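Example 5.3 — ABC transporter ATP-binding protein
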Amino acid sequence: MIQIEHLTKRYGGFTAVDDISFVAQPGRVTGFLGPNGAGKSTALRMLTGLTPATSGAATVLGRRYSELPNPSRHVGVMLDAAAQHPGRTGREVLQLAATITGMGRARVDEMLDLVGLERSEARRRVKNYSLGMRQRLGLAGALMGRPQVLVLDEPANGLDPAGIHWMRGLLRDFADQGGTVLLSSHLLHEVELIADDLVMIGGGRIVAQGGMKDLLATRPGCVADAEDRAAFANALSAAGIPVAGRADGAADIEADAARVGRVALDAGVPLTLLRPADGTRLEDMFLQLTADTARGDRGVTTSSRDAAASGATAPDASPAQPSSPQDTPTREEPTA
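Solution (predicted structure tokens):
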């Protein structure tokens, strides 16, 4: 389990993360969402001991990350797919990970098979890996120590559709076996497919959290269309039922389908469509809740909270990644 309690990070007068609290439960995938600069990466860095918190606490399995004996045996971390040593081969990276976590060499081949890296690819140097291959290598390193918890920042970057489907299954299996997954991603559709719970952050503060099904519950009302749209609209108006047009020509109606069907029947208007209203889409909720802090197309970008945590603007920031096997590589496309 991951527990975040009143976690705050300030850089001088700038608050990157502002009093956030949430729990990621075992057996569940928790999606951690927010626009660029919202504070996601800063929060994950505080969780994994890379950036000291100004106040509050972040614990994994009941302890601070730094207090865990051999943390990579308990927590698999992948925060940056561009942070692996480019001169090592993929196999060397995983052999180092196996040594640090106390796993045998057989575990290296097991992880290569798990993430779909061929033996020939494992002999190549990381500088010749595509971003998608580095993501797979990073996941192999994160899983090397058979951890109970995974903390992943944008793990699907660089993966093709087949790779994203594979990763979704991998994380779902991990959670179904009792593991805890905290997943930060900008691929909202993928998060919607895999996450059990959501934590949404904007401007350094949590703007929504809860179960995916609860947050995206079906709205009241229905969607309907008719051969004679004008007559249908008049019938609804006469019945005092609010209605709003849709881009596809149908109508969003603030009444249940049974009532709308009776109104149409009484008015003698044949319906061509009648179904329950759509549930709220994750993308719609994300855009609505983070509108005040998202970059959008305003032309002027907001201050980047996550960049502040990288060390470029924050004097007390730690190195870019833990010195652990789950470190991942620089972003170069294959040259061989």
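Remark. Confidence is low (pLDDT under 50) at residues 297-336.
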